[in-house]
Amino acid sequence: MSAYKAPLRDMQFVLKELLDCDAHYASLASPEPLTPDLLDAVLDNVSKFAEEVLDPINRSGDEEGCTWSAEGVATPAGFKEAYQQYVEGGWPGLAASPEFGGQGLPASISFFMDEMVGTANWSWSMYPGLSKASVELLSEQGTDQQKNTYLPRLIEGSWTGTMCLTEPHAGSDVGIIKTKAEPNADGSYSITGTKIFISAGEHDMSENIIHMVLARVPGAPEGTKGISLFIVPKFLVNDDGSLGERNGVHCGSIEHKMGIKASATALLNFDSARGYLIGVENEGLNQMFIMMNAARVGTAMQGLCMAEAGLQKSVDYARERLQMRSLTGPKNPDGPADRIIVHPDVRRMLLTQKAFVEGNRAFLYWLIMQVDKETYGNEEQKKEADVAMALLTPIAKAFVTETGLEAANLALQCYGGHGYIREHGVEQIVRDGRIATVYEGTTGIQALDLIGRKVLGTGGESLRGFTRVLHKYCEQHKDNPEMAGMIGRLAELNKEWGELTMEIGAGAMKNADEVGAASVDYLMYSGYVLLAWFWAQMAQLAQRKLAAGEGDANFYTAKVQTARFYYERILPRTLAHAAAMRAGAESTMAISEENMYLG
Amino acid sequence: MSAYKAPLRDMQFVLKELLDCDAHYASLASPEPLTPDLLDAVLDNVSKFAEEVLDPINRSGDEEGCTWSAEGVATPAGFKEAYQQYVEGGWPGLAASPEFGGQGLPASISFFMDEMVGTANWSWSMYPGLSKASVELLSEQGTDQQKNTYLPRLIEGSWTGTMCLTEPHAGSDVGIIKTKAEPNADGSYSITGTKIFISAGEHDMSENIIHMVLARVPGAPEGTKGISLFIVPKFLVNDDGSLGERNGVHCGSIEHKMGIKASATALLNFDSARGYLIGVENEGLNQMFIMMNAARVGTAMQGLCMAEAGLQKSVDYARERLQMRSLTGPKNPDGPADRIIVHPDVRRMLLTQKAFVEGNRAFLYWLIMQVDKETYGNEEQKKEADVAMALLTPIAKAFVTETGLEAANLALQCYGGHGYIREHGVEQIVRDGRIATVYEGTTGIQALDLIGRKVLGTGGESLRGFTRVLHKYCEQHKDNPEMAGMIGRLAELNKEWGELTMEIGAGAMKNADEVGAASVDYLMYSGYVLLAWFWAQMAQLAQRKLAAGEGDANFYTAKVQTARFYYERILPRTLAHAAAMRAGAESTMAISEENMYLG
Questions:
Q1: A105: distance to nearest CA of chain B, Å?
Q2: Helices (H), A89-218
Q3: What are the phi and psi torsion angles at A208 (to 5°)?
Q4: What's the CA gap between B108 and B368, in Å, rounded?
Q5: Which one, of B446, B455, B460, lies nearest residue B399 by Cα?
Q6: Nearest of B188, B405, B178, B223 to residue B309 by alpha carbon
Q7: Are residues A357 and A471 in the same domain?
Q8: Residues 6-25 of A with CB under 8 A from B
Q9: What is the mean pLDDT of residues A303-330?
Q10: How many CA atoms does the CB half-sphere of A583 hold within 13 Å?
Q11: Is residue A437 over pLDDT 90?
Q12: Phi, psi of A49 (to 5 degrees)
């Protein structure tokens, strides 16, 4: 089984060369500046932690899984120790507020860390991942007293956090949750109900677990406008900060899942558990959604992680495995067969993975820098970043995970039968990754958010703002002869993107179902166009470096070649998505519910 | 967890109405005629066996898996007993020769049985499935003495068979196998070597296991021309037919796999095991490949099985699960939310599955009837069937399993997070089904076989024969106003199919890698066109029935609507495949091997 090696070369290319992160970080008013040296040091240290500590317990974690007992949940061998090392390294607090013990760096640094940690061991990454989300929520929404009570311990990592939204009957439709919050005389609330699918909901890594829980107070309005947000610690916290009595929240079971088996997915029973209101009653969903964009980009990262993991393995395998002769004559005449990397269809599978990995990395890193700007940018930066994040986050979440899953499946396919057995670890990537298009909002939910709320909900304005950026890019570079093919195609697609939006919008005036019927095709189309923009930028940059004779010519040559592969072999999928959208909703809606299956 | 219900209504539609199976069976010279009554009785009885015996042990089989010990392999609870029932029902011998105890029916009957058995429990279906393949091989290639020794027990099911091709270093590339066969003085051979991935290679269901083993005799030519085929029984057989001493073949381990965990995938060590040559030395691969088409259609069936299994579950779930309101206003105003089947994107996912299930069923059943014609047809039928099988089998194997896997993943997606946990059984479908695009020749191998051997290898003649059939169909029906849209599109695609073939052929003259680079896009394109032909035929038939007021109007209406969905929402994928093919091989081949990954 080939070991994970952090792709620092490509990460640095995207950060330093494509996105000029040094200038970006210098422009931010973060409490601590992320200097080039510090960035390099963090990436370097995290890469070692991912490669040396997390990767070696990835497969064993999958095989052992988590173990439930009435006393709690035991994580697989090595998980607790790895978490301890992570805490000792000070990693949980990289981007958290110095006021509560954090290092005050821009948020993006923790996403780059997440990429390496998540590629090496996604299951493990769920524990600090959910905790980070709870820190962000409390930092944004908590009272001073709440922050003082919980943040220092969450930020140092001795406690961890969770997000408790889903109930058995309420998944995408969080508006229908039933968990109750009855006010107590002392200002706290008594929380009663059942939450499911709670990642890191119970485990043995930290001294306390702080649950962020959505529930309804008595008399709350129905639906999403009647939901409040509560802090429910596993152990109550005494005034001096020490742990008090066990609260009434218990893990009833953990799920048996297709993958991410080392991530404990808990069913939590709240039985008059003591909870503390965050903000005001009935504003819980808005409070929770303020940080949803960042969480969704975090989940999008899983798409990149699984694609990177599969690419590394399948390229290694394709270089070693001898099977069949090249169609153009033996390439390894002294061996019994040629290395399978010579076969065109194996190359197609590898290049498809490479095109998604590197294209999606550029897209996500760019998007993550918008998170920095939202937090520490000037007013103009904030405004731009808000618009970009709103529009592009659902695309990132759905497109990067869908294409990541495709890439992971291609990695398995490169192995043939050897990919289906556990030995090489590639089937685990597919099983672990399969959840990514589902949780944190399914692809369908993201698609509705994109076309419904973000695009049509702004009368198309947010998209127009963005297509103008692409248009300007195409105008600037259309006379570059090296880029003519790509820029021409990008300009056409950018124009069609706007046209398709208008057509769907017009259809929606007559029939709202036109929006839903087109939504996933629209999202995927949008994703392919976005990646075409990033690939054009990378190809252009690489060509400039090659022309100037700067840097590693192999690296830049591969970039240009992969860009071309993307444009020629992958981007044509926009044709299919556009035609499917333009067919309209009728064939999707015509069949009656009773006739949907007549086997 | 919803239980499997055999889709007899749709199976009967395809068999009786679309393919006129009564006339088909009446035209065959099978030892026993498959009368309409007998067909119905078999389908009915098998459906009960699949629903009542096999489906209930599908999930438990996955959870328990197979257990290896030095003494042998134990199958999960209930598997042995189910196999006993299958044997007692006389099912193993349905299509086998009456001379050796079979029932002498046309082969297709056993494929329809396979669909139901395989949808209910694919792991279990592997044991009789491999045995059937060994019966076919021995029936075709064995001496009278070999047939008399093995066939009666294999056909009654008290013994089972296997196919032993793969070795650790030799998968797709069977030409480089190393297993040795040294001649003994008595005319038998001593077989020594290691075979891996042997389905049903060791288990506790039958008294003996008869391995069909590829090996090389001393001095054999290198490569595929130096491979011979041997019978290697687990227990040697005495002259009176009783079991003799244990032969030198032992199961060293079984694989730990992503899915089909109840199917024992054995590593077999042959240590001077006694083997008996089938036919003549060095002709083994041809002998084995004679029956490869039928085996590949059998594996294609897994694509249909997983899609049917997922469709049944996800439609049930979509009818029950209440989540969100319809975009066009509440459809279930008295409930807390609408059933998710009202949402356009859920309908898109269900209809995509339905279009693949029913389209692929029509395609496979039609193809399976060609198997009948090859065996029991007149000379003209045989010739036609041979050509059709050669051309279409690789498409069936790869296209039906690829689209089956897509369908299974959409079924999981319909469940949201509930699809990722074991409870509903839908994640098992994805895990079990993932092997189908890999074994019995990967998608890439099928695609090379199609475009290289079958199409370009015949100078395009086999494809021209087939596109003429489609052309004639389009000419016949182009004036039917109800069908105008579909027939027009089908005619265009049929024409383009020929053009693309010519273009790839012309490119291949200059560079053989053009074939490999286009191969999978070509295969998928071909599959979509084929399914368009079957959907046009089904729509046309259904419209005729509706116009005549015959039969179940709901069923026919749904057929017409699903056909339209297929044409409008799925068939546009041909645009992407055609454009990707036309881009040529350069962007696939340009990147150097060293530069394939630069992370």
A1: 25
A2: 108-120, 122-141, 144-156
A3: -145, 155
A4: 6
A5: B446
A6: B405
A7: no
A8: 7-10
A9: 97
A10: 24
A11: yes
A12: -60, -45
Provide the residue count of chain B: 599
pLDDT of residue A293: 77
DSSP B301-352: HHHHHHHHHHHHHHHHHHHH-B-S--TTS-SSTTSSS-BGGGSHHHHHHHHH
Q: Are both A63 and A122 inside the same structural domain?
A: yes
What residues 313-342 of chain A have any CB closer than 8 A to a CB of chain B? 315, 318-319, 322-324, 326-328, 336-337, 339, 341-342
CATH at B370 = 1.20.140.10
State yes or no: pLDDT of B244 exceeds 80. Answer: yes
- A-contacting residues of B 27-56, CB under 8 Å? none
Q: How far is CA A520 from CA A446, A448, A508, A514, in A?
A: 8, 8, 15, 12
- Which residue among A558, A569, A580 places its CB closest to the CB of B591? A558
- Are both B63 and B151 inside the same structural domain? yes
In a shared domain, residues B229 and B250: yes
Decide if B284 contacts B278 (C-beta within 8 A). Answer: yes
Q: Same domain, yes or no, for A61 and A180?
A: yes
pLDDT at B293 over 90: no
Q: What is the pLDDT of residue B127?
A: 97
Boundaries of domain holding A419? 291-441
Q: Provide the domain count of chain B.
A: 3
The residue among A414, A441, A468 that closes a domain is: A441
CATH number, position B74 = 2.40.110.20
- Residue window 444-503, chain B: list those with CB within 8 Å of chain A: 444, 447-448, 452
Q: Are residues B436 and B455 in the same domain?
A: no
Q: Chain B within 8 Å of A553 (Cβ-Cβ)?
A: no
Measured torsion, CA atoms of residues A29, A35, A36, A39, in degrees rounded to the nearest 10: -90
Is A419 touching B (CB cutoff 8 A)?
Answer: yes
CA pair distance A83, A262, nearest whole angstrom: 13
Q: How many contacts (CB atoms, under 8 Å) link A and B?
A: 333
Instruction: Find the distance separating the first CA and the last CA of chain A, reported in whole Å.
Output: 44
**B222 and B302 housed in the same domain:** no
- Specify if A158 maps to a domain: yes
**The predicted structure's pLDDT at residue A228:** 98
Cβ of B453: how many Cβ atoms within 10 Å? 13
Closest partner CB to A588 (pick from B166, B265, B347): B347
Confidence of residue A411 (pLDDT cuts 50, 70, 90): very high
Quick: pLDDT tens for B481-523: 989 899 999 999 999 999 999 999 999 999 999 999 999 999 9
Distance CA B95, CA B585 (A): 45
Q: How far is CA B582 from the centre of its chain?
A: 30
User: pLDDT tens for residues B461-477?
Assistant: 999 999 999 999 999 99
Per-residue pLDDT reduced to its tens digit, B374-424: 999 999 999 999 999 999 999 999 999 999 999 999 999 999 999 999 999
User: Is residue B3 included in any domain, yes or no?
Assistant: no
- Annotated active-site positions of B, please? 440
Q: Does A197 touch chain B (CB under 8 A)?
A: yes
What is the Cα–Cα distance from A525 to A529, expressed in whole angstroms?
6
Name the band, by pLDDT with cuts 50, 70 and 90, for residue B295.
Answer: confident
Comparing alpha-carbon positions, the chain B residue that sits nearest to A597 is B315
Q: Which residues of B touch A565 (CB under 8 A)?
A: 587-588, 591
Average per-residue pLDDT in chain A? 97
Does residue A151 share a domain with residue A35?
A: yes
Q: Do A575 and B575 touch (CB under 8 A)?
A: yes
**CB within 8 A of B69, min separation 6: which ones?**
none
Final residue in a domain of this structure, among A275, A290, A305: A290
